[in-house]
Write a structure and sequence with these properties.
Layout (H helix, E strand, L loop, with lengths): L1 H13 L8 E8 L10 E6 L4 E6 L5 E6 L4 E6 L6 E5 L4 E6 L9 H5 L5 E3 L3 E5 L10 H6 L4 E4 L2 E4 L2 E2 L1 E4 L2 E2 L4 H9 L6 E7 L14 E6 L6 E12 L4 E13 L2 E24 L4 E25 L4 E14 L2 E10 L6 E8 L1 E19 L4 E26 L2 E28 L2 E24 L5 E2 L3 E20 L2 E18 L4 E20 L2 E12 L10 E5 L2 E4 L7 E12 L3 E20 L6 E24 L3 E18 L2 E19 L4 E10 L2 E3 L2 E3 L2 E12 L4 E8 L7 E7 L2 E8 L4 E11 L13 H5 L3
Parallel strand pairs: 1-7, 13-16, 34-37
Antiparallel strand pairs: 1-4, 2-3, 2-5, 5-6, 8-9, 9-15, 10-11, 11-12, 13-14, 15-16, 17-18, 17-47, 18-19, 19-20, 19-46, 20-21, 20-22, 21-24, 22-23, 23-25, 24-25, 25-26, 26-27, 27-28, 27-29, 29-30, 30-31, 31-32, 32-35, 33-34, 35-36, 36-37, 37-38, 38-39, 39-40, 40-43, 41-42, 42-45, 43-44, 44-47, ...
Length: about 800
């Protein structure tokens, strides 16, 4: 609790220094050789981008604006010069503004000073990275600093709920460790802005229990080219790692070409210890495992866009990914009685294996601007994708029973091929006080999975151990309508999405079929009210979580001497309702309270068969989940060199489920605290210290014990700000160890995982080019289907 008190004290000390309502903004506008610029347009906008004051510079380049400024930004525009923007407070100040001509490259210092780092909107949080390396080496570093975002090794949640990650409105198509690797390979110098959308509008797929994180890359606005390179070398607990990326944007005439490529590789190390206490059998099962996992991944994203005329354009986007992991491990399982701690039987397991995930997706789109004045626009997207997932393992288990070795060898291989096709159309137009959106989407998924499983023991012929061929088909037809209206200081957004789903799962080996069809409505509501420095918002959304395709495969994979994992073709989708009420003061101090309830939660479920004593983990629907939470965050810049971002939250979660005909309950109250301090030590040198701590928290049927992590980073801009050298140390004190518990029915389970949470990384990035161009935001039709292809 001392961290919570510390955070509150710091907020009280640094927070409420702005009280004046009337301010005067004076300044002068000059060019790069200090000549006065007359006739420049100066406007002040509120956070809704509405112009509240307007003037022009005089013959000496000077201007003056007096009024109730509040939280806003100032924009300067003049023909032949690059637009300039800077955030304002309501204090008196004099601005010396230097405009750069369009023939000069935009300096990074101008980009980074144009907007506050965090900007709260009624229905989302905007994180303005603007290519600034101070925000972190990569996208994952930036996400860790966003209030309410938690990255628990392979999982990303916002205010306790899982989210979907998009890049430029396009799905990453990855999850778990593969998604984390991609984010680590995405340099912050290529990121313009990150959107955290708590309750997405009806325009988006209704998939996902939580919201959306959309990472927007930096775009270019003039003909020419712009390129970037990025290299990172790191070392974890035991082994080194490296990743690199390169990007190119080129525009000439009506054509625009983009190309981005990233590659990473290394080796991960993990020590895992599990303890299962079998009270009914007077036994303890202790399993100690060591993982050495080489990995490599590659991602490519290339696009072409052509303007046919002033109203029409066509484009193509090709994305591809390849990743390979070889999660080999060795484990020692000890089984003994409570009464005699030295009475143990030993079981040795060796499991070399490989996991290969690759995919290719093509998106074709057409944009037609029907009427500029009415802002009528039609967008059509067609997608075709092919994805493969190949998992191979060889598990040799040797059991020493009273000194006599008994060996079993499991050879298992699964190959999944999925084809995804989709077509969607979106129409928007301006209405009296806002906008109207409507559209439809049709998607079709075909999946084939061949699973081979063979078990052999000493002196015995090999036996089939659950081989199976499984086919799955899914068709979704969706229509939506949404409207956003603004009435002075009040904004309102209403939306409704309908999705009709048809599914069919067939086991050719078992000659069984599971079919399903369901129609669902997903309403969405968002309202906001702004007055002066105060902003209020209320949002609501209904969401659906469909099982990933691999979770539906009814195969049993042997993971250890006494453990296995299996799919579940009878999984049902889960439904979540999210409510969120928020208050923002001066875009610095944020309060929010939320409530969510979920039916048929999909989660890992552990069972134990009292006869064979095997622990089985499978995806299952549990009855219900309820969560209520409160979050607070504060961000400010002190003394022009100290940027602070503090956040804390408390919540209570309650899961209910049936196990062996008994209604079980797992509930837990928790809290978290994050403290970020970024220091601009000089014009080119910066440093940051970041702390995150969390109390006990429940995820489905298990509870994570408290942990904390502290990181440090520093960097220096070189080559006139175009290059950057940086260093970061994560989890300095090696306190980010994961510990979890499960305790219900005949399950008494605990796990301790020590992995590469502590690491050191060196980074180099460089950007060069002669202009800045901008391509359209991409949002293909198969976003949600590709994400589930893991």
């Amino acid at each position: 609790m001392k961290y919570f008190y510390l955070s509150i004290i710091l907020i009280l000390i640094t927070g409420f220094s702005e009280a004046r309502q009337v301010a005067t903004i004076d300044g002068t506008i000059i060019d790069s050789v200090k000549r006065a610029i007359a006739g420049a347009s100066i406007t002040i906008h509120n956070l809704s981008n509405q112009v509240i004051y307007k003037t022009v510079s005089d013959g000496t380049g000077k201007f003056s604006i007096k009024g109730e400024i509040g939280k806003s930004y100032l924009a300067v525009n003049h023909i032949g010069y690059i637009p300039y923007r800077i955030s304002l407070t309501d204090t008196t100040g004099f601005l010396n503004i230097v405009l750069m001509s369009t023939s000069q490259q935009l300096k990074e210092v101008i980009i980074s000073s144009s907007r506050p780092f965090l900007q709260q909107e009624p229905d989302k949080l905007l994180v303005n990275v603007d290519g600034n390396p101070k925000a972190g080496i990569n996208a994952l570093d930036v996400l860790k600093k966003i209030p309410g975002v938690l990255i628990n090794r392979d999982d990303i949640t916002v205010e306790g709920k899982p989210i979907m990650v998009l890049i430029d409105g396009k799905p990453t198509r990855l999850s778990g460790n593969s998604l984390i690797t991609l984010l680590e390979s995405s340099p912050s110098t290529d990121i313009g802005q990150i959107e955290v959308i708590y309750n997405p509008s009806a325009k988006y797929d209704a998939a996902g229990a939580g919201g959306i994180i959309n990472i927007k890359t930096i775009k270019r606005i003039k003909p020419g080219y712009d390129a970037s390179i990025n290299f990172t070398l790191g070392h974890g607990w035991k082994y080194p790692s490296a990743n690199g990326s390169a990007g190119l944007n080129y525009k000439k005439g009506k054509n625009n070409i983009t190309l981005n490529y990233s590659r990473s590789g290394g080796k991960q190390y993990q020590e895992l210890q599990t303890i299962n206490k079998q009270q009914d059998l007077n036994q303890t099962l202790l399993d100690s495992s060591v993982y050495n996992t080489p990995y490599q991944s590659q991602n490519i994203r290339t696009g072409f866009e052509r303007s046919l005329n002033t109203k029409e354009s066509i484009s193509a986007l090709l994305t591809g990914n390849y990743s390979k992991r070889e999660p080999g491990f060795t484990s020692i399982a000890k089984v003994g009685s409570f009464s005699n701690a030295n009475d143990f039987d030993y079981t040795l397991s060796e499991n070399p294996g490989s996991v290969v995930n690759k995919g290719l997706n093509l998106n074709l789109s057409y944009r037609y601007l029907i009427d500029t004045k009415k802002q009528q626009e039609l967008n059509i997207d067609a997608d075709a994708g092919l994805f493969e997932y190949h998992n191979e393992s060889k598990n040799l288990i040797t059991q020493l029973n009273n000194g006599l070795p008994i060996s079993r060898n499991y050879i298992q291989e699964g190959k999944t091929t999925s084809q995804i096709y989709s077509l969607k159309a979106d129409y928007t137009q301006k209405i009296k006080s806002g906008t109207l959106e409507t559209g439809l989407k049709i998607s079709d998924v075909g999946l084939e999975n061949n699973f081979s499983s063979v078990m052999s023991s000493q002196g015995q012929p090999a036996l089939d151990y659950g081989s199976n061929e499984f086919h799955y088909d899914e068709t979704i037809i969706a229509v939506y309508g949404a409207s956003r209206m603004v009435f002075g200081k009040f904004s309102l957004q209403l939306g409704l999405r309908a999705e009709q789903t048809f599914t069919s799962g067939i086991s050719l080996t078992l000659e069984s079929r599971v079919k399903n069809a369901y129609l669902n409505l997903f309403p969405n509501f968002s309202s906001g009210f702004k007055t002066g420095k105060h902003a209020f918002s209320l949002t609501y959304g209904r969401r659906i979580v469909r099982p990933s395709y691999s979770e539906l495969n009814p195969f049993m994979i042997v993971t250890g001497a006494f453990s296995s994992r299996t799919g579940n073709p009878y999984l049902n989708p889960s439904y979540t309702q999210n409510f969120r009420l928020a208050y923002v003061y001066n875009s610095k101090l944020n309060f929010s309270t939320s409530y969510s309830t979920t039916k048929d939660v999909i989660t890992d479920f552990q069972t134990r068969d009292n006869q064979d004593e095997i622990y089985k983990v499978l995806k299952a629907n549990i009855n219900s989940y309820h969560n209520v939470g409160f979050n607070m965050s504060y961000n400010n810049t002190l003394f022009k060199f100290w940027q602070l971002n503090y956040a804390l939250g408390i919540s209570n979660s309650n899961y209910r489920f049936n196990y062996n005909n008994v209604m079980e309950q797992v509930k837990q109250s928790t809290g978290y605290l994050s403290i970020g301090n970024n220091f601009q030590l000089s014009k080119t040198v910066y440093a940051e210290i970041f702390f995150y701590g969390q109390a006990r928290v429940t995820y489905g049927t298990y509870i994570n014990l408290p942990f904390s992590t502290t990181s440090f980073s520093a960097g220096k801009k070189i080559w006139k700000g175009n290059g950057n050298l940086g260093i970061s140390i994560n989890d300095i004190f090696f306190t980010g160890i994961t510990r979890s518990l499960r305790n219900y029915g005949n399950i008494d389970y605990s796990v301790k995982s020590k992995y590469d949470s502590r690491s050191i990384r060196l980074n180099f990035s460089y950007r060069f080019g002669n202009a800045r161009i901008e391509g359209r935001k991409r949002n293909s039709g198969s976003d949600e289907e590709q994400r589930r292809n893991q």
